Amino acid sequence: MLTIHHLANSRSQRILWLLEELGVPYDVKRYEREPSGLAPAVLKTIHPLGKSPILVDGAITIAESGAVVDYLIETYGNGALIPPAGTPERLRYAYWLHYSEGSAMPPLVMRLVLEAVGKSRLVPFWVRPLARALFGGMVKGYVNPQIDAHVEFWEAELQKSAYFAGEALTAADIMMSFPLEAVDAAGGLTPGLRTYLAGLHARPAYQKALERGGPYKLG
């Protein structure tokens, strides 16, 4: 049986959802975050970087969300959740699958880090007002406009079709769910994108993944 090493409130929730959509049996090992918000050190005994998700399939260990998704679709998908090769939808699928982590997540992570540093008690108290002003200014003037541009892009693309790669749900939508959820947690989604995300959340497989993975909340 497949084993997913699943970190609370993390990208690995998508892998549980994908497995539920595919109907593939799996076991979940859930890890809680440290008070710092970081993953526990024990995950480094599974993979050197100690990140999640980590998929173990017999002698195979795979980390990195996109790589795990590719492996599951190719090994267990039987053609599900991926458009046929050689179609325009397949090209869109490949784009959004990689865009989700390669382009969408960096500004979201940057905002999270800058806001955390501005509030950190590791910063001497006499410097904190300056740190909050400095990092807050970077978020407002540089990071937030980038995120807004991405949100506008998502909105425009989903006006072309019901899902990111066409008229049917694919693994690209599963990958894109996390950046949308991260933006939604900060109140930054448009009404149209909230409707799209609500549709994903209403899927039985998504709900089953929540049951298997335990409490899940971003922000």
What's the total helix number? 7
Quote the beta fraction. Answer: 5-15%
- Give the CA-CA distance, first to last residue: 32 Å
CATH architecture of the largest domain: Up-down Bundle
Q: How do the SSEs run, as a string of H and E?
A: EHEEEHHHHHH
Task: Return the structural class.
Answer: alpha+beta
Number of domains: 2
- Using only CA atoms, what is the Rg? 18 Å
Q: pLDDT average, as an integer?
A: 93
Q: How many runs of DSSP E, i.e. beta strands?
A: 4
Residue ranges: pLDDT <50 for 5 or more in a row?
A: none
- How is the quaternary structure best described? single chain
CATH class of the largest domain: Mainly Alpha
Model description:
The longest helix has 32 residues, at 88-119. Strand 1, helix 1 and strand 2 (26-31) form a beta-alpha-beta unit. The protein folds into two domains: 2-81 and 209-213, 3-Layer(aba) Sandwich (Glutaredoxin), CATH 3.40.30; 88-203, Glutathione S-transferase Yfyf (Class Pi), Chain A, domain 2. 55% of the residues lie in helices and 9% in strands. The protein has a four-stranded mixed sheet, with helices on one face. The radius of gyration is 18 Å and the shape is globular. The protein has helices at 13-22, 65-76, 88-119, 128-158, 171-185, 191-201, 204-213; strands at residues 2-7, 26-31, 54-57, 60-63. Helix 1 (13-22) runs parallel beside helix 2 (65-76). It contains seven helices and four strands. It is α+β, with helices and mostly antiparallel strands.
